[in-house]
Amino acid sequence: MKYSIADVGTLAEGLDHPECIAVHPDGSVWAGGEAGQVYKISPDGKKTEEICSTGGFILGIAFSPDCSWLALCDLKHKCVWKLELESFKLEKFAVGADGEDFQIPNYPVFDSVGNLYVSESGAFRTITGKIFKFSPSGDGEIWHQGPFNFANGLALSKDEKTLFIVSTFLPGVETVSISDDGSAGERDVYATLPQTCPDGIAFDAEENLYVSCYAPNRIYKVSKQREVVLLIDDWEGHILANPTNIAFGGKDYSTLYVANLGRWHVATLPMDVPGLKLICHKK
């Protein structure tokens, strides 16, 4: 295990059980709350603003490639919201596709041209998860029927040729290749994490994959060679408390931010290798 709890800091406290985390190019850190709150935290953590509320339960969030809007997955309202960042106007972006409504729209990720992939978890104790895909204009489809065992966090590979999908009750991470025409290709199990409930994932610049686990309170590192090592563990569950989504940010993208659904804070972990910049960070 590389890190101890003594290495973990706190960016901000007083949030309402944050499940999600995303970093804006200006360094601000955004998170959601279990009553639909959308928080903006200053880069130094000294100021936290509640930008708006959906009145729902915010799961995953992601900035569009040009950072003009923030995609919000909402458990209660079973939709993806579009939050315009200039006006803070909030409107529903999608409630499903191909005649199928969302049940648990869990996590969104954008590709470089603005297509939005969304994990649909399905339902607890049923293997019914799938992946939706939406064009920039909002036209949607069921991109991969799965079934995934509770599809959760998502991440695109550096070359955008593979979608990485957390399957919480596999438990582990799967991959689906992205064909030249944009359709779903071959599916594979990338890594398994026995006796865990993985939730969020993020890549570093060397394409190591980090996996945060809702239970137990751990973060794992999976190398490109698929070697799995334990990065950090919090058996007490106070500093890492049901860690869900993770995201790189801070100076040189060398800080890993961790949302803690079980408590009220965003944790920080200094990393030796910086994070892989997302599409929104490259504009």
How many DSSP-defined strands?
A: 26
- Overall pLDDT confidence: 97
Strand content: over 45%
CATH class: Mainly Beta
Strand order in the largest sheet: 1-26-25-24
- Which class do the helix and strand fractions yield? mainly beta
Uncertain regions spanning at least 5 consecutive residues: none
End-to-end Cα distance: 35 Å
> H/E order of the elements?
EEEEEEEEEEEEEEEEEEEEEEEEEE
- The radius of gyration is 17 Å
Q: State the domain count.
A: 1
Oligomer: single chain
Structure description:
With 283 residues, the protein is mainly beta. The protein has one domain (5-281): Neuraminidase. The chain is 0% helix and 52% strand. It has no helices and 26 strands. The protein has strands at residues 9-12, 21-23, 29-32, 37-41, 48-53, 58-63, 69-74, 79-84, 90-94, 96-97, 100-101, 105-110, 116-120, 129-134, 140-148, 151-156, 162-167, 172-178, 184-192, 197-203, 209-215, 218-222, 228-233, 243-249, 255-260, 266-270. A 4-stranded antiparallel sheet has the order 1-26-25-24, with no helix packed on it. The protein has a 4-stranded antiparallel sheet with strand order 2-3-4-5, with no helix packed on it. Strand 10 and strand 11 form a beta hairpin.
